[in-house]
């Protein structure tokens, strides 16, 4: 069964840092791009970042560029989101998602989603 | 910046057909996807590449594209289809992914 399990969400003060993790299982991880999508309370979905299957290409939304780094460990079937300089408007549920195409492309549709991990930025 | 525009809400009676639109200037050049999100749950992919349906998605969900607008059609709407629906596309020239603002489908 294809599964994604996020972890690492927490309550953090503005300016702080967090590292989100996503453990993948049930598919050949290195063949698929992965992404992170967030959802602020009561708001819509916002794409945050994506990484290619090889890990060589990464992409970021303007709202997080320079503060966030996506990475992956294909040996451990994990993808990470390092978030620094957190702001109150970074608060939300962060979903990890698998890109549907098996060629490592990172900007396609997302066919498998985790249940999300909650990040709260507040003083 | 790359924007996708959806109507905030659509209402339909059970058994009727619901159409949810998504407009964006880059859509003639880029494929779109559609997601369903029920309250408190993760999104579910309904349609990718404008009109392809992943395995396990009921045939009553279909997608189409015309010019700068893509449309999600739900035929024979059921009460369980009440949810938020999001379109998504990527601008491959800027490597930027965008979601529409979402449409709340109400089944009357």
Helicity range of chain B: under 10%
* Overall geometric form of chain A: globular
Question: Mind summarizing the main beta sheet of chain B?
Answer: 6 strands, mixed
Query: Which class of secondary structure composition applies to the elements of chain A?
Result: mainly beta
N-to-C span of chain A: 40 Å
Biggest protein-protein contact in the assembly = A-B, 21 and 25 residues
Order of helices and strands of chain A: EEEEEEEEEEE
**Poorly predicted parts of chain B:** none
Radius of gyration of chain A: 13 Å
- How many runs of DSSP E, i.e. beta strands of chain A? 11
Number of H/I helices of chain A? 0
The main β sheet of chain A shows up as: 7 strands, mixed
The fraction of residues assigned to DSSP E strands of chain B is over 45%
How are helices and strands ordered from N to C of chain B? EEEEEEEEE
Number of helices of chain B: 0
**Terminal Cα span of chain B:** 36 Å
Quaternary structure classification = heterodimer
Walkthrough of the structure:
The complex is a heterodimer of chains A (123) and B (108). Chain A has 123 residues and is mainly beta. In chain A, 0% of the residues lie in helices and 49% in strands. Chain A contains no helices and eleven strands. Chain A has strands at residues 3-7, 11-12, 18-25, 34-39, 45-51, 58-60, 68-73, 78-83, 92-99, 110-113, 117-121. In chain A, strands 2, 4, 5, 6, 9, 10 and 11 form a seven-stranded mixed β-sheet that branches. A four-stranded antiparallel β-sheet of chain A has the order 1-3-8-7, with no helix packed on it. Chain A is globular and about 40 Å long. Chain B has 108 residues and is mainly β. Chain B is 0% helix and 46% strand. Chain B has no helices and nine strands. In chain B, the strands form two sheets. In chain B, strands 1, 3, 4, 7, 8 and 9 form a six-stranded mixed β-sheet that branches. A three-stranded antiparallel β-sheet of chain B has the order 2-6-5, with no helix packed on it. Chain A binds chain B through residues 35, 37, 44-47, 50, 59, 61-62, 95, 100, 107-111, 113-116, and chain B through 1, 31, 33, 35, 37, 42-45, 48-49, 54, 84, 86, 88, 90, 92, 95-102.
